[in-house]
Amino acid sequence: MNGTREMAYAFAALRRAAARKRVYAVRAESRGRRAAARLLRAMGASEEVQARRLFNNLKGRIDLSEDFLDTVFSKELEEILAEYDRQLQLAKAGGRELQVQVLGELRRAELRLRAFYDPQRRDLKVSGDERYYLCPFCGYLATGTVPEVCPVCGAAGENFQETG
Ligand SMILES: [Fe+2]
User: Fold this and answer.
1) Strand 132-134 to 161-162 pairing
2) pLDDT of 114-164, one tens digit each?
3) Mean of the per-residue pLDDT values of the chain
4) Which chain residues have CB less than 5 Å from ligand 1, an ion?
5) Distance from the CA of 1 to the center of ligand 1, in angstroms?
6) Disulfide: which of 13, 133, 137, 157 matches 142 by Cβ 3.0-4.6 Å?
7) Distance 114 CA to ligand 1 centre (A)
8) Torsion angle, alpha carbons of 162, 22, 48, 73, to 10
9) What's the gap in Å between 112 CA and the centre of ligand 1?
């Protein structure tokens, strides 16, 4: 395994930790703790750099075989959808309407990613110079042109950003 799995795990942990610090920073800011918020943002930025470096190291180890695509589309994507379903059920049972709405939108954004895989050919549905545009609020990924409004969360198309 060459430590690839462990590095991927560390990468995921760093990304999670960085994201959490951004949330804590917002909370600190709202409580008037500006210095703490600045520190938390800086720490999160540090972890993003660490994650990026690990990612760069991992890139050379990941093989883009059919097995890899199978992992992305049959395992990871379905696991995320199943987790959203589980969380949605809990939120509904708890009467947490805002959470139900957010999770529902995120689930639809993830579900949309299924469309980029052709299970018959076991390959990505991709054309030569396709452009991708991301809704920064829900993660919906548009192709070709920017939609007028995000079909998932309703954000104005002008907010979409082309991905690299
Ligand atoms: Fe959106």
Assistant:
1) antiparallel
2) 999 988 888 888 887 889 999 999 999 999 999 999 999 999 999 999 997
3) 90
4) 135, 137-138, 140, 150, 152-153, 155
5) 38
6) 133
7) 17
8) -60
9) 12
User: What gap in Å lies between CA 147 and CA 106, rounded to an integer?
Assistant: 18
33-51: average pLDDT: 93
Query: Ligand 1 mean position to 54 CA, how many Å?
Result: 29
Evaluate if pTM is beyond 0.90.
Answer: no
